[in-house]
Amino acid sequence: METQDFRFSSQISHLALDIGGTLIKLVYFSSNGDHCEESRDGTSIVVRNNGGSVLQGKLCFAKFETRKIDDCLEFIRFNILHHSGDQHQNGTACDKLTVKATGGGAFKFADLFKEKLGIVFDKEDEMHCLVGGANFLLKTVPREAFTYLDGQKEFVEIDHNDLYPYLLVNIGSGVSMIKVDGDGEYERISGTSLGGGTFLGLGKLLTKCKSFDELLELSHHGNNRVIDMLVGDIYGGTDYSKIGLSSTAIASSFGKAISDGKELEDYQPEDVARSLLRMISNNIGQIAYLNALRFDLKRIFFGGFFIRGLEYTMDTISVAVHFWSRGEAKAMFLTHEGFLGALGAFASYNKTQSHDTNDLKPHHHHHHTVQQREETFNCSGEISVLTSFDSIVPDQLVFQIGNKMVYHSSFVEEEGITKACGCPLLPLKSHIKGPAPVSEQDRTDIVDEAITFFRANVFFTNFDIKSPADKLLIYLTFYINVALKRLEGCRTLAVGTKAIINLGLEDIPVPGEAEFPFPGLFPLPQSNEEADLFRNYLKQVREETSGRLLSVAYRANGTPNKWWLAFAKRKFMNVVVL
Ligand SMILES: Nc1ncnc2c1ncn2[C@@H]1O[C@H](COP(=O)(O)OP(=O)(O)OP(=O)(O)O)[C@@H](O)[C@H]1O
Ligand SMILES: CC(C)(CO)[C@@H](O)C(=O)NCCC(=O)O
């Protein structure tokens, strides 16, 4: 069994996927160990099941481009998201999950996921999930909905008794408009094919830019008046006030291109991107308003990844809704705009599973401090609070709890184990020469633990040492950080191996020497023999760690595994690794 195979398998549950035309969205709940002693003091997520045991957890979001579906498969495989948490506490089982999936890709890619990951999709209807996700957020997460007008973002208090009916406009590749009358009560009343896919598709053709972010960045610096024909252009600079159009209103999107006698190359791509964004956003705002009007809906919530919290987009949509409704209807946006479908699929576990910890219900929690986003999620009766988040890799937000090292070594039994500098010289599954006793090959050793827990522990800037073995875990976490830093630029396993061999040739400081990274962590050696014994042990354990690290940081074909190498940039315990 590979070391990482048991890493998060006992902590991840409720993976849900929304596989759309452009993006794949992932949501999963990750608990940090099931019998957490920490009190609910606002710095940790605490979830109790009916038996009274406690789960700490975080809610993780990730997204991938659908055309790069292999990245998504690899991410799921690497993080072992496809293994059920609740049944496999010991990490020995390898049963696969039935995973909630929605979006067109739940159909299109079902066979691929089954073949590559053994995942069987439990398909949920896309519209149902969008509504489920929106209701879940609006009722559960404080400061989820907000208005955006005149550059001002204002959070909207949601009155649970006065939420329905509302119009949900999901701007993905295409746009769906859904009238929502209650939980599970909805009707898709309209849609438009001029959506996020149109913006990105036309944008790529017209500006030659490669990505959505690039296109957004371009649009940020552009001026739509260069290409859009304004009312003033037609009316000689004056308003057409009789019908309520100011001179600066757009009379015809891209309309100037016909009269200017210019070619595409004569325009700045920035201006093209700006006009395009304006055109799509305006059009959606207008169609949304017309549909709200059809059913007398006053509130319109906009979601989907097209919005991306972009001020210009939100402003355009808001102005369109405000303008056409003469201030009657309100455009509102959602903080988790892009994850409605995935959250709806995630929340749908609630309906189909009955055992305790899978019972996800919204619940409010009031006394926590929150850095940026906050969520409360409940697994059966108690409260979970996310207090801060950190970004591991681009496109992935991981909500992090508290600031204490949470994974501890299981090697608490010290009997019969030699120590040097207060550090137990724990057995290793190693053939490398050194003072470590040889461990049985099928048992977890401290190197397995260090690698397994690394990506969680590297986030923490302080720790509480529960046993002397934890000190070794801290040292190895630091060492893995050092080794990853050396691997950072190494594009092949061969080059990486060389870098690691060179690292192995460097002097190894021991406590009492200036270069030792954690002064005070270990007692100083009492003799030269003790210093040498510890140095030799550290050399052996470092070498062993290096070998196993190479096998996780590079794939079988010798190319780097970016999910691992992304961690080279982390600072562990505020120690800067060079
Ligand atoms: N990083 C990104 N890469 C590609 N498109 C992005 C990105 N970020 C935002 N977008 C925009 O979001 C749109 C996709 O939004 P979303 O993920 O909500 O829809 P989808 O589920 O893929 O589509 P559909 O529901 O129509 O199948 C894209 O068309 C694009 O306009
Ligand atoms: C086809 C879906 C529902 C797929 O998510 C979406 O892309 C969409 O709503 N498109 C608009 C289709 C229309 O109503 O014209």
What layout of secondary structure does this protein have?
Blueprint: E1 12-19, E2 23-31, E3 47-48, E4 54-55, E5 57-65, H1 69-78, E6 98-102, H2 105-108, H3 110-117, E7 120-123, H4 126-140, E8 145-149, E9 152-155, E10 166-171, E11 175-182, E12 185-192, H5 196-207, H6 212-220, E13 229-230, H7 231-234, E14 250-252, H8 256-259, H9 269-294, E15 299-303, H10 311-325, E16 330-334, H11 340-347, H12 349-352, E17 360-361, E18 378-379, E19 388-391, E20 396-400, E21 419-420, E22 423-424, H13 446-457, H14 468-487, H15 493-505, H16 528-553, H17 562-565
Parallel strand pairs: 1-6, 6-7, 10-15, 15-16
Antiparallel strand pairs: 1-2, 2-5, 3-4, 5-20, 8-9, 8-16, 10-11, 11-12, 13-14, 17-18, 19-20, 21-22
Summarize this, please?
This protein has 578 residues and is α+β, with helices and mostly antiparallel strands. It has 17 helices and 22 strands.
